[in-house]
Design goal:
1 helix; single chain
Length: 189
């Protein structure tokens, strides 16, 4: 499940520096391909997610904006920088927990997209995440800002619009990760 959004603030704020060496590359996988077909983002651009091989038909992730539209400032470094409320549906039978990741496919270093958020331990029967009130049992990765939890879009001034990918995972086993696990290790698991 993919959801895409763009953000270009042009306000001069910059991403906090990170060292890609602190985030080992995940092992390649043939089970999931999160590729997307994307046009350059502009006023008339349309971004259409390409279903990943092995994608689960009917499994959906919903954010508070339409696919391909700009992310509201409250979810960015220009606003409150709060994580969005999300919901999901069509959870497949046998799902033990839901995991969600947000990456910036426009900010890539050494082949690794910038991870803004990775969270797991979400109850598949709840069908929604109120990010301001995380349920017991959730764990969050150390994002590329160096913080545990969500870090909203904050592209460099003058950058073209960035492409953010939200991915939802229906896991058939419980992840045994701790808060603060490196985002790349989190996503690999």
């Amino acid at each position: 499940m993919l959801a895409l959004a763009a953000c270009d603030t042009g306000d001069g704020k910059q991403l906090r520096p990170y060292d890609p060496a602190d985030y080992p590359q995940p092992a390649p996988t043939t089970e999931v391909d999160d590729s997307v077909a994307a046009a350059p983002l502009g006023a008339d651009a349309v971004v259409t997610p390409t279903p990943a091989p092995g994608a689960i038909e009917g499994f959906t992730l919903t954010a508070p904006w339409r696919n391909g539209e700009s992310i509201d400032a409250q979810y960015t470094c220009d606003g409150l920088d709060v994580a969005p409320n999300l919901s999901w549906g069509g959870v497949p039978d046998g799902t033990v927990e839901i995991a969600i990741a947000m990456v910036d496919d426009s900010a890539v270093s050494d082949g690794q997209p910038f991870v803004h958020w990775a969270i797991a331990g979400l109850d598949p029967n709840e069908l929604a995440l109120v990010a301001a009130d995380l349920p017991d049992g959730t764990v969050q990765a150390l994002n590329f800002f160096g913080d545990v939890g969500y870090g909203g879009p904050c592209p460099l001034a003058g950058d073209d619009a960035h492409l953010y990918r939200f991915s939802a995972y229906a896991l058939n086993t419980e992840l045994t990760l701790a808060d603060g696990t490196l985002a790349t290790e989190f996503l690999e698991a």
